Every structure is written in C-alpha cells, then in structure tokens.
Amino acid sequence: MKIAIVSSECVPYAKTGGLGDVIGSLPKALEKLGCDVKVFIPKYLFIDELKHGLRYNWNVGEMPIRVNGIVRSVHLHQATLPNSNVQVNFIDCPHYYNRGRIYTNDWDEDERFILLCKGVIETCQRLAWAPDVIQCNDWQTGLIPLYIKDNYNWDRMFDKTATVFTIHNIGYQGRFGKDTLYKAEINPNLYYPGGPVEFEDSVSFMKTGIVFADLISTVSVKYSHEILKPEYGAGLDPILRARKPDVYGILNGVDYQEWNPETDKFLPYKYSADDLSGKKLNKKFLMEHFRLPFDENRPLIGMISRLVPQKGFDIFVEAVDDLMKLDAQWILLGSGEYKYEEFFHKLSYYFPGKFASYIGYNNELAHLIEAGADIFVMPSRYEPCGLNQIYSLKYGTVPVVRKTGGLADTVKDWDEENYYGFDHGNGFSFYDYSGYALFKSVERAVNTFAHKDVWRKIQLNGMNCDFSWDRSAEKYIELFKLAKEKRSG
Ligand code: ADP
Ligand code: GLC
Questions:
Q1: Which of 317, 344, 421, 446 has the fewest CB atoms found within 10 Å of its own CB?
Q2: Which atom number of ligand 2 is nearest to the Cα of residue 310?
Q3: Ligand located closest to 19 CA
C-alpha cells in the first residue's frame, strides 16, 4: 500500500511537541509492515540540509503554485528518515517557510499551510506517485481531503486515493477569515452557516478535514470517545457525532530507538529494568546541574511540557502551596504562555533547593529528566494521547496523571489495581479537574515512594509495558484499508 503522510512536524527535522515524534516514527513502523511510505513536510529555514542529507530533486524542478492569487515558485528536496528507507519530501517555498518558527501568528499563516496542502498534491503529480491513502495530520493539512475531492478531482490519478484525517489535538483548529476562501481557491458555495468549511463565521481547516476525509482518526481510544462530547469537542463535537461511525481511535506508539534508558545517547548512565542503579546516578547528575541537594530518599518530581492551558497548569497553580509542603523536589522543563513561564521562574526563586526550572526547549534535558526523576506529573485538562507519560513508564519514572484521553489509556492507578488484586498498576491518577485531586495523587505517590519494594514493583510494571508502534501500526493499516474501500465503494 502506498501511504503519503503529511504534517507540519517530523522528528528529527522539526518538532514542537508529540506530533513531531509521531510523524518521525509511525512511517518507519508502516514501512516495516510492507507499506511504501512517503512523508511530506515544509522545508523550514532552520532545517540543516547538510546534517540531514537533503537533496534537491532536479527532475521535479520548479512547481508554480498559486496561493492568494500569486503564483509562488516551489521546489522539492528529499531525504531519508533515519534508520529506515522512508522518503521525506520537503516542500520548499522560502516566501512562506523561511521564518524562525514552525507556527507563526503572521497574517498569512493560512497561506503557509494552503501552500503545503497544494504542494503535497502537486508533488505527487510530478513524482507520478498515486498514493492509496493520504494521511493528513491536524489542521495544517485539513484542506487536502477537500482538494482531492474537488479542486484536483480532474486528475484521474487520484480517483482511488483515500484520505484519512488524524486529529492530534482538537484545540487547534486553524480558523481564518472569509478571505481564506479566495486565497485557497475553495468553492465559495461551500461556505454558508453550518456548511462544510464554515465554523462560527470562519473558514475552519480542521472542520474541512473532518467533513471531507474518508475516515477520521485520533490518537487514543479514550480521546476518540471524548471528542464526541461537548466537554472535549471544542465546538466540533456535533460535526464529529454526525460522522461517528467513521471516527476511530488508535493509540500512539513510541520510538524505543530514541526513548529507551538502555541505549539513550543523552544519558550519562544507562540502565534497565534489571539494574536500576544508573537511574540514581542520572538523578544525582541532573540535580547537581540544577544545584538541587541530592537525597535518594526524597523523590524528585519532573515535568516536561508545553506551558499551555491544555496541560492543566491552572490546577497546579491552585495546589501549589500544598504541593510545595510535600517532602519532594521538583524540576520543570517547559515553554509557552508567558504567565506560566513567569510563574515557574518565580517558583524556583521562592523555593531554592526544592524547585528548579528551565524555561525553553531542550531535547537533551527532556531525556535526562525522564531518566533522573522518580515521579512524572501530567495533570492535563485534556490529553489526546500524551507521550511523556509513556516515556516515563519506560524510564521507571512513575507517572501521576489526570485520567483523560491517552493518559487514561496508558496509566493504570496503583491503588485501584492493587485494591482489585491485579497488582499491575503503573502510576497514579485522578479524575476531578481540581488542585485538590492533583495534590492528593501527588501526595499518594510521594508517600508510596517511601516503601521501596512497592515502588520498585510499580516501576517495573511500567518498564515492562510495551507501547512500541508494532500493534498500532497494524491498526493504521486496517484503517487505511477501510478508507480505501470507502473511497472506491
Ligand atoms: P504535546 O504534543 O501535546 O506537547 P506530548 O506528550 O504528546 O504532548 O509530547 C510532547 C513532546 O514534546 C515530548 O517528546 C516532550 O519530551 C517534548 N517536549 C515538550 N516540551 C519540551 C521542552 N520544553 N523541551 C524539550 N522537549 C519538550
Ligand atoms: C498532540 C497532543 C498529544 C499527543 C500528540 C501526538 O500534540 O496534545 O496528546 O500525544 O499530539 O499525537
């Protein structure tokens, strides 16, 4: 099966969060199962061509593509995804992508991703490569299903090409003014209140993807149910309910070549479930770096996150006085909204020796915190999948999470499981979205940490979980087959 995977992020080239991790690893798993996979992302200015071995494709040459009535000159560069034969296609349009960041608040943000959507289709044409399925990821790719069915339906080469729209986060919808219709050359007849591209007086890329894709998926089973409800649907729940039989949930896998304490290239001390002694050494190394006094009997709590409302920091703020009274130490790595950055920055001044923070993005430090911390906290308001708790499980770092989305699908509460006699809990979790519930769970984890044998059992339960892509990639293939049947039927 020929699969095109389109995204705004892909590790190791461009990442702001879990989307990058997924697009850097799912294609490899699909290839292993026999698929012919090509990835498509924008060629951002910061992508190091030499380091990643990008090659200019002379056969394709110049592709003139019109956005907002202006024809832009677009070119194709290609590379191979590390540890695989997956071809990555970089859509090169300096006018749109030679900016410092992946996402901008610039006035032409819609145009940047209109170009991506058109660029992918035109590239397939130039390569004479007709995908069986185009998997579109998040709003940046939302116009592709419409383009395949409308603007480009003159091209017989796409007659059998199905589209799957994968929602990684319904909170980001790509909504723009009505002038986007013209910029994107969307048939104006599709825009009317409640119409397929209209959402609350705006052109919505995410709604367009949901309406026109043959099938829709999201990144955990629990989240696929949650987004059908007003509480989690961010306004699009009625649209999703209308397509309920076509909405699937497939849990993300993780790349254990990148995230494995036995081989992690960023760790000064490797360790495994059989011998956890390296974990303690990483903790010491990490704490020295942050000038926190090391005490092996006091748990170190880690947090790594985009600092945005989704991640539940308002309940952290609510509970902070109680949390800081616990006999534990904290390290936070994150960047995002100024109010949270300032809050955590200040916290490290108020609680020296107890709370430390690094405001910014640092991949190496993310690996080190996963390895050095004893407990990992993720109190998300909603979480489509979440990868950090899955990494934490592998690193023997016991997660404390809110029971929502992928967090609920991956973290089993120790007390609950133990109470029912299963004995295979791998973390701690809470339902109520409140500071009190968060505090009580963290308190439970901190108290349990003192019982070394129990703690080790919880750690091992987590370390022995397998969230590699193998199973989930098979589910994607089933989904792609269904989408193809739907398209031809
Ligand atoms: P989301 O995609 O919503 O941000 P995930 O848990 O799926 O949440 O994925 C987050 C990914 O981004 C993880 O790989 C995590 O390590 C990484 N990450 C988040 N914030 C930072 C940061 N400040 N520095 C380095 N890595 C980060
Ligand atoms: C989104 C979600 C996160 C998920 C990631 C990858 O960024 O917020 O929960 O893990 O996408 O699918």
A1: 421
A2: 8
A3: 2
Whether the pLDDT of residue 418 is over 90: the answer is: no
* Length of the chain measured in residues: 489
Question: Within 6 Å (CB) of ligand 2, which residues are found?
Answer: 17-19, 22, 168-169, 219, 252, 383-387, 406
Determine, yes or no, domain membership for 411: yes
Block residue for tokens 């695989």 = 84
My answer on whether 474 and 438 are in the same domain is no
The bound ligand whose nearest atom lies closest to the alpha carbon of 405 is 2
pTM value is 0.97
We report the CATH number of the domain holding residue 357 as 3.40.50.2000
Indicate if 171 and 27 belong to the same structural domain: yes
The yes-or-no verdict on residue 403 having pLDDT over 90 is: yes
The atom number, within ligand 2, closest to the CA of 171 reads: 8
361 CA → ligand 1 middle, Å: 9
258 is a domain residue: no
- Ligand number with the minimum distance to the CA of 219: 2
On whether both 360 and 429 belong to a single domain, the answer is yes
17 φ, ψ to 5°? -165, -155
3-state secondary structure 200-259: CCEEEHHHHHHHHCCEEEECCHHHHHHCCCHHHHCCCHHHHHHCHHHEEECCCCECCCCC
Residue 270 lies in a domain: no
In the chain, DSSP finds a helix count (H) and a strand count (E) of 20, 19
pLDDT confidence band for 243 (50 / 70 / 90): very high
Q: How far from 407 is each of 147, 374, 379, CA to CA, in Å?
A: 35, 18, 9
The predicted model gives 129-150 an average pLDDT of 98
Looking at the structure, tell me whether residues 223 and 308 fall in a common domain: no
Do 481 and 454 lie in one domain? The reply is: no
Shared domain check, 322 and 234: no
Q: How far is the CA of 385 from the centre of ligand 2 (A)?
A: 5
Ligand 1 midpoint to CA 18 (Å): 6
Residue among 23, 172, 388 to mutate when testing ligand 1 (max atoms within 8 A of CB):
388
Note the pLDDT tens digit of each residue in 425-474.
Answer: 999 999 999 999 999 999 999 999 999 999 999 999 999 999 999 999 99
Domain identity same for 145 and 245: yes
Task: Decide if 139 contacts 145 (C-beta within 8 A).
Answer: no
Average pLDDT over residues 66-71: 98
The residue segments making up the domain with residue 249 are 2-253+470-488
Tell me which of 361, 362, 393 to substitute to probe ligand 1's pocket, judged by most ligand atoms within 8 Å of the beta carbon: 361
Q: How many distinct structural domains can be found in the chain?
A: 2
Residue 363 near ligand 1, beta carbon < 6 Å: yes
Whole-number Å distance, alpha carbon 67 to ligand 2 midpoint, is 29
Q: Which residue(s) pair with 331 in the sheet?
A: 302, 356
Q: Which amino acid residue places its CA nearest to atom 4 of ligand 1?
A: 17
Could you tell me if the CB of 312 is within 6 A of ligand 1? no
What's the CA gap between 489 and 484, in Å, rounded? 8
Q: What is the mean pLDDT of residues 119-131?
A: 98
